[in-house]
Amino acid sequence: MSTSEKLKKEVAARRDDLIALTQDLIRIPTLNPPGTNYREICDYLDHRLLRAGFHTELIRAEGAIGDSDAHPRWNIVARREGKTPGQCVHFNSHIDVVEVGHGWTTDPFGGEVKDGKIYGRGACDMKGGLAASIVAAEAFIDVCPDYAGAIEISGTADEESGGFGGVAYLAEKGYFSPERVQHVIIPEPLNKDRICLGHRGVWWAEIETKGEIAHGSMPFLGDCAVRHMGAVVAEMEESLFPALAQKRTDMPVVPEGAKQSTLNINSIHGGEPEQEEDYTGLPSACVPDRCRMVIDRRFLIEEDIGEVEQEVRDVLERVREARPGFEYDIHGIHSVEPTMTKRDAPVVGAVAEAVRDVFGREADYVVSPGTYDQKHIDRIGRLKNCIAYGPGVLDLAHKPDEYVGIDDMVESAQVMALALQDLLSA
User: Fold this and answer.
1) Given this structure, which CATH class describes domain 201-272+281-335?
2) Domain segments of the chain: what residues?
3) What's the predicted TM-score (pTM) here?
4) What is residue 325's predicted lDDT score, i.e. its pLDDT?
5) Neighbours of 134 (CB within 10 A)
6) What fold is seen in the domain 3-199+338-423?
7) Residue among 96, 128, 94, 122 nearest 107 (CA)
8) Domain named Peptidase M20 dimerisation: which ranges (predicted)?
9) Would you report the helix, strand and coil content of the chain in percent, each value rounded to 5?
C-alpha cells in the first residue's frame, strides 16, 4: 500500500475522533463580540496538541484592539519538529464565532449529530476546519514519523472582527515570517474541492452630514441632517451603484455577484439616540443636526484604493454643489488591499494534487468575496505562499442551524494529510 493510501486510510479510521473533537470545540461558546471563553478553548487545544508531541505557546494579544482583562485575547501556537530540518507547514484557524441570532432548530452549542452533519455555531466557520487540520496532522505524524521540517497549528482570536487580536498580533511578533513558516493553509469553509487563493479588498468609511437643531414643529428654522444624508443615498443610487456594477474582475471570485465591485450601506444613524427598551415615553421634537452612515466598499485587484475613496468623495461633492447648506465629513475606518496567491505557489500545487488524489478531479480555484486572516499573513508577515482550504459550505456561515458535513471533514482532512506528505517529504 502506498503512503498516500495509508494516509487516507488512517484519517478515515479517525472519523469518530474527528466528530468528537468538533463537538467539543462547538460546545465552547467563543462568541465574538465580546470574546468569551478564548482561554478555555486554548487550554483545550493545548491539552490535545501536547499529547500529540507538539510544543505549545499560549499568547495573549495584550494591547491589541478588543483585548481587556474582562475579555483577554488568547491565542495558541503549537509546533512539532520533524526528524530532519526542512520547511514548515502552518494550519491557522480562528477560534471565535459570531452571535447566535434567531431561527435555530438545534442547540447552537450542542454539537448535535444528525443525518451525517454536525450542527452548531462555528461548525462550518470554522471549528470543523480546525478539527480536520488537527486530525490530518496527527494522522500524518503516525504514518510518516520521519518527516522533514515542522508542522504548526494555531487557534487565533478575533477573525470575525478583523483579526487584530489574533493573526495580526502574531504576525507583528514574527510568527508568520517567511524565515519561520513557509506554507500556510487556513481551513476556512470554501468547499472541500476548492482552493481559495485570496480575497477582494475592502474600504470601510464613515460619512457624517451636518445640520442645525431646531424644534420639530418648525423644521424651517433648522436644517435636517437626515434629509442631507438622504440626498447622498439618492446620488449613490443614481451614479455610484450603476458605475460599480460595470466593474468586473479576472479574479475567480465566488459567488458570481461578487465578480463586480460592491458597496453596502452598513448603517445609518441620525437624530435622537435610541432609548432603552424599557423607556415608555415619547421622542422629543427636534430637527436632527447630525447623521452618520457607515459604508462597506469591496473592491477588485484591478482597482486602486485611492480611486475607490475618490469615487465616494465625488458623490459627496456632487451633492454639495447641488444642495444649499450641505456640509459633510468623511473618514476611513478600515482598509485591506486585495490579495491573491499565484497558482504555481508550492502550497497551491500540493493541495491541488491532494484534491486530485482524494476526489479524482481537478480542484476549483476561487477568491473569497470578503477578507479573512490571509490579509495579515500577506501584509504583515510578508508571506505570499498562503491559501484557504477547508470543509464546509461558505453560504452556511453565520446562518441559523449552521452545520458541517462529516464526510466533508474526513475528506478535507485526507487532502490536508496528503499535502503535508508532499510538502514535508524527507
Assistant:
1) alpha beta
2) 3-199+338-423, 201-272+281-335
3) 0.91
4) 94
5) 29
6) Aminopeptidase (3.40.630)
7) 122
8) 198-318
9) 35, 25, 40
